[in-house]
Design a protein that fits this description.
By secondary structure, the protein is an all-alpha fold. The chain has one domain. Helices cover 47% and strands 1% of the residues. Helix 6 crosses helix 7 and helix 7 packs across helix 8. The longest helix is centred in the middle third of the chain and has 18 residues. It starts with 5 loop residues before the first helix and ends in a 10-residue tail after the last helix.
Length: 284
Amino acid sequence: MSRLSLKARQDLIETLYVQFHDPRYLEWDPLSVVRRFGGGGALNPEKSDQEYLALISALFAFGGVKQIIASVNRAIGLLELSPGGARIPSYQEEELAYRLTGFRHRIYTGQDLFAITRLYQRSVLVHGSLRAHFLVHHDPGAETIETGLAGLIREYKKWSQALSAVGPHFKHMLNSPEDGSTCKRWLMLLKWLIRKDDGIDLGLWAGSKELRPEQLLIPLDTHLFTISRKLGLTRMKTANWKTANEVTMNLKKIDPLDPTRFDFSLCRYGMFEYRNLNEKKLLP
């Protein structure tokens, strides 16, 4: 556990932010693929495939970064997506299933990608966009986005019962705060969409008082959990939903209005630290 004083911890985290919060490091992030596709704007995310690509890129975000990016690019190829091209919801069920036959990303198969795509299509059909669907469940006055995420996942689980087929591991795509999970990939997606950060987070849902950066929670994976313990951001011994809350609340002591802005820099620091890379070689 860290023995850093609060001031020393704040100074170190801000130092890492200055050093690593840089779009040059997107090379090690699936968000780099999503950024190739233009957005429809904060209030019109349905005008672009960017919202959908952010969804699948976040849900595929486990394992090696190169493999994640390769899988997202393969999905783009199978669906013949291009900036300004046909939108995902235009594909009917039979054609979509045919296009995704043979797809695989680690434990996920084409059936899993088909299933989450069909759920996204239904969000667009019923609500107009994933953003609008999320807002149905979200409490704008709440301290965090927990209610909105739990409600969305609960409805997706219900909708998935009507799908013709799902892969054996599809349930892992629908982690929920109600399960006590860290929900790392969903929290990462929401950070990408709600935070507006030139060159990094998309801000596709930004621009309204209903969704605010201070409501976001840190997307906590194994490396970031270890770093958070070393920095004294949590005393929890395991990573779960409560841990993500605790880490975020401590980051709010540094930035009450935008605590997850430190996520990208802490993750990049973790990547270089745990892979024994010399970050100085990556900087001019």
